[in-house]
Specification:
Arc Repressor Mutant, subunit A, 2 domains, about 25% strand, Jelly Rolls, single chain, alpha+beta, 4-stranded antiparallel β-sheet, about 40% helix
């Protein structure tokens, strides 16, 4: 099965490529299917490919020596991950898990080199993606090191919002995440997340639905992140 060009068109990897390039690029990808609960790769595995989510959902996480899980990202169709493996042959730094039945588009290193020889824009786009990831990592280290729980929870929600995880609603943006999932992203307890979410709800910044947080005021949530309210 060939890659879906509509999904490739959503990816920042192919931003600005010439017309017709996606039809050629789709032949460079392999389509892989993963059942819910199946790992795509684990931390420490050799890195061989970049992946784009065609359908389903992926969780990216790390586990520390005590067995505690830290969620780095939840990914939707159109999102990509594993891009570092295309520029440096190093082991995977995190684990990728299919949260539901998922189809991925895999771009292996050799095929990537072939694409970049034909379309240099792809290499430039990958460099921009890596630079953005680095900025996000630096901000995350700062937030998780110095911010209190309120700022950490705000950061986790804004990160999901900026990655368009969820869906638009008439009132704002709905993020399909449980309190426990947000706790794993924010590096705090579920009870603390619940307390913070209830406070933000009372301030009319959020609305709480079963298994979902609806962001009503992103500007106010930004202020919470930076300690302005």
């Amino acid at each position: 099965m060939l890659a879906d060009t509509n999904i490739l068109a959503q990816s920042p990897l192919f931003e600005g490529v010439p017309p017709g390039a996606l039809e050629i690029a789709r032949e460079a990808f392999q389509t892989l299917s993963y059942a819910a609960g199946k790992k795509v790769f684990e931390a420490g595995d050799p890195g061989e490919a970049l992946y784009i989510v065609q359908s389903g959902r992926i969780k990216i996480y790390r586990t520390n020596l005590d067995g505690k899980e830290k969620v780095l990202a939840y990914l939707n169709p159109g999102d990509l991950f594993g891009e570092m493996s295309l520029v440096e042959e190093i082991p995977r730094s995190a684990t990728a898990l299919a949260l539901e039945d998922t189809v991925l588009l895999a771009l292996y290193r050799q095929e990537y080199y072939g694409l970049t020889r034909r379309y240099p824009e792809v290499a430039h786009n990958l460099a921009r993606i890596l630079a953005r990831r680095l900025r996000e990592m630096n901000l995350e280290v700062e937030v998780l090191s110095f911010e209190e729980a309120r700022g950490r929870v705000a950061y986790a929600l804004l990160k999901l919002y900026r990655h368009r995880y969820g869906e638009q609603s008439p009132q704002g943006w709905r993020v399909p995440a449980t309190h426990q999932e947000l706790a794993l992203m924010a590096g705090t307890s579920r009870e603390t997340v619940t307390r913070v979410l209830h406070a933000l709800r009372d301030e009319a910044i959020l609305r709480l639905l079963p298994g979902t947080v609806e962001i009503l005021d992103t500007a106010a949530l930004e202020e919470v992140l930076y300690g302005l309210r």
